[in-house]
Amino acid sequence: MITFSSTATRHNEISQTHGRYDQNAARFVVSSDLWSEAISVNSVATCRLWNHMEIRHEEHSVEVVKIRPIENGQLLECAVSIPFVGRVISFQLHVTVDPISGYLQLTLPQSELVEWMPDAATLMSIDILPEMGAASAGQDGYLFLPCFSGVLHRFDHDMARELRLTIYAAQPQWAMKCHFNLFGIQTLGHRFCGMVTQGDHDAELVVRSHFGPEKTYSVHASWVYRWDHSDAMIDGDRQLTLCPVSSDGKAYNQFARIYRQWLRDERGLQTLEQKAQTRPAVCDFAQTYLLKIMMGYKKPDLNGQGDYQSNTTFAQAQAILQRMRDDGIDHITTQMVGWNAQGHDGRYPQRFPVNEQAGGESAMRELIQWGATQNVYIGVHDNFSDSYQCGDDFDMANVIVGRDGRHWRNVPWAGGFNWRLCPLQSIKHAQRDMPRIAQLGVKANYYMDAIGALSTCHSDDHPADRRAIMAGFQAIFNLAQKHFDTVSTEIAFGPYLHLMDGVYMTHGVESAGKFTDFVEHYVDEHVPALAVALHNGIRYHLAHSLALQGRRGALMDCLWGAMPFIEIACEHVPGVHGMPTYDDVREYVLTSQQLCCRQLADRVSVDIEAIEQVADELWHTTYADGKVVQTDFASGKVTVS
Ligand SMILES: [Zn+2]
């Protein structure tokens, strides 16, 4: 089984099936017995480097010097040369095909990567199989991008664009929400997905739309070795896995199933049944009715000195929860937002004393004890990323330092300007405070807020590259798992999914469009691929704003396989966290309880195979046991067949 060949005849034949006739440009054909069709590429790789002589970034083609057979594939000896000095970079690319799955793996071992003249040129990144399988304008099909819950980009745009999308969003791209390491393409001729399976913390996707003289559409992976030319080289082996898929059903569902299997096999994401063997409370949490109660926060002030505004005291929270109990919601978990000193975003990393304006620690303990008798579990909404100068625990030495030596001051919240904590430092706060939170009686669920992007830290004392920053968050989540039965967070970043029991899931991209033109230029359709990947592993819920849509919001939960969620307060308070009251969302609560927690309760622990819109107002969610949930927005009915 040949995986790479440069046979001109073969290429011409293939390129014609793609409708591309540039005989001189294309040199390589990727093929295997298990791929339905061979795919031509112009080059195996291109390389970005920093030319120290010219003081600039340059892009160079990678020359394949030699091809040797190895078991299940080929080894490509590659080199990059620049004018005047010749070869500056060399590496070996191992190209193998898994004989069973047909997956094509391209691996670049770190030990075989050499910078021959680092004073002349340093490696920035290697684009691998650039524009592989590119589609031409007007074709049917799409690029699949791992943003939000899955983005489809069609081949019908009219402006040439190129985007380098950081896998696991960096701060400048936080609003694009690229949180997982999967991409794909479906054309008339082929469909396959790719996963950056090693070195995924330092990788990009290169998305080209209506690009170049042929106006092609493509997405390929790039392994990043330096984010800035002054950085040390990021080490570690790199690997890209390409997976052909059959033409059966919608491609994005197939991509999601492949990604799910990889998360389970390689990254330790467990099914609910597997989790229950060591942590039985997880299944309980997966079935619970979840809500956030906003307790209060200070008025906007850049120094965090605004007056406190109360939404809900601990006593008022009990009254809300009692009303839900009276409405038949018999199993509830809450995340108390602003339980901590001076309310939501009040004085982090200081969290004690417990919010005194809301009743203080004794009132919180009373609420927890009352809940324990009512099947109502009180958890906290917590945060190890933000710090405020108004708090007692503020220490600039814990803050992330940028390449320019400046401490990172992020946008202001209720505590004033928000200095972002390096997780290598904030774990000390977690070690100190998590046991104390647990001693309050918080047990069933713990929620960590505000991990929105992966940065690098250039502090002399606690430097961290993106992989180390993620390892820092993982360590905090591991600690949380020791103290609490289940752990939730805001955003489903691929590298910590195996540590997560609950996440938000984006079901609509409209609000993100306010922060990034990515939505306007790249999102032709937003699809529930992430739901297919995470269902029966992690309890997920959609945005709280859906609850304002009443029954329609609950129907949206059903088609996504999501569990219900509301975010409420006892009293309206003006400001950025305007929250509905229980009455505002009661119709949603009653309907979602009936649909998600009763009618579809047994669906929670079954894999989802596909989610598809089959008519204008009709969606089918197909489960691995063959049952199909039909969500009909026209009639408002949900049926299982
Ligand atoms: Zn640091």
Features:
single chain, 641 residues, alpha+beta, Beta-galactosidase, Chain A, domain 5, TIM Barrel, 2 domains, eleven-stranded antiparallel sheet, 12 helices, 38 strands, 32% strand, binds zinc ion
3D architecture notes:
With 641 residues, this protein is of the alpha+beta class. The chain has two domains: 4-266, Beta-galactosidase, Chain A, domain 5 (Distorted Sandwich); 272-382 and 423-451 and 463-603, Glycosidases (TIM Barrel, Alpha-Beta Barrel), CATH 3.20.20.80. Helices cover 22% and strands 32% of the residues. The chain contains twelve helices and 38 strands. The strands form seven sheets. Strands 6, 7, 8, 9, 10, 13, 14, 16, 17, 20 and 32 form an eleven-stranded antiparallel beta sheet that branches. The chain has an eight-stranded parallel beta sheet with strand order 33-31-30-29-25-24-21-34, with helices on both faces. Strands 4, 5, 11, 12, 15, 18 and 19 form a seven-stranded antiparallel beta sheet that branches. Strand 8 (86-97) and strand 9 (104-108) form a beta hairpin. Helix 5 (314-326) runs parallel beside helix 6 and helix 7 (423-439) runs parallel beside helix 8. The protein is globular and about 75 Å long. The two termini are 43 Å apart. 51% of the residues are buried. The model is unreliable at 7-26 (pLDDT under 50). Zinc ion binds at residues 400, 422, 424, 457, 459, 462, 464.
Offer a quick outline of the entry:
This protein is an alpha+beta fold and 641 residues long. It has two domains: 4-266, Beta-galactosidase, Chain A, domain 5 (Distorted Sandwich), CATH 2.70.98; 272-382 and 423-451 and 463-603, TIM Barrel. Helix 3 (272-278) packs across helix 4, helix 5 runs parallel beside helix 6 and helix 11 (551-560) packs parallel to helix 12.
